[in-house]
Amino acid sequence: MSSALAYMLLVLSISLLNGQSPPGKPEIHKCRSPDKETFTCWWNPGSDGGLPTNYSLTYSKEGEKNTYECPDYKTSGPNSCFFSKQYTSIWKIYIITVNATNEMGSSTSDPLYVDVTYI
């Protein structure tokens, strides 16, 4: 057995004994647009694996290649992302995911497909 593999197994064993693990899969709870000019998405974080965990919401627009991070994590409270007028387009489908990361690994929510016109 290589020393790198042995080290990885040792770290994994110690982490499991300490109750630490990669984060659980986050789930996007809902997205709402009160006025069709802005919208907010909220998520349930899932297990943190017993470690400090960072969450990020990423999105792309259907038919486009670029992926972006949430423009505003503060306005709508914890575990949310607010899209101001500057970031909102009607008649476009947003493909949204939430990523959870801690020192043991990461997990990603299932994608949510959102058309602001219908939320």
From TrEMBL:
<keyword id="KW-0675">Receptor</keyword>
<dbReference type="InterPro" id="IPR015152">
    <property type="entry name" value="Growth/epo_recpt_lig-bind"/>
</dbReference>
<protein>
    <submittedName>
        <fullName>Prolactin receptor</fullName>
    </submittedName>
</protein>
<dbReference type="Pfam" id="PF09067">
    <property type="entry name" value="EpoR_lig-bind"/>
</dbReference>
<feature type="domain" description="Fibronectin type-III">
    <location>
        <begin position="22"/>
        <end position="119"/>
    </location>
</feature>
<dbReference type="InterPro" id="IPR013783">
    <property type="entry name" value="Ig-like_fold"/>
</dbReference>
<feature type="signal peptide">
    <location>
        <begin position="1"/>
        <end position="19"/>
    </location>
</feature>
<keyword id="KW-0732">Signal</keyword>
<dbReference type="InterPro" id="IPR003961">
    <property type="entry name" value="FN3_dom"/>
</dbReference>
<keyword id="KW-0325">Glycoprotein</keyword>
<dbReference type="InterPro" id="IPR036116">
    <property type="entry name" value="FN3_sf"/>
</dbReference>
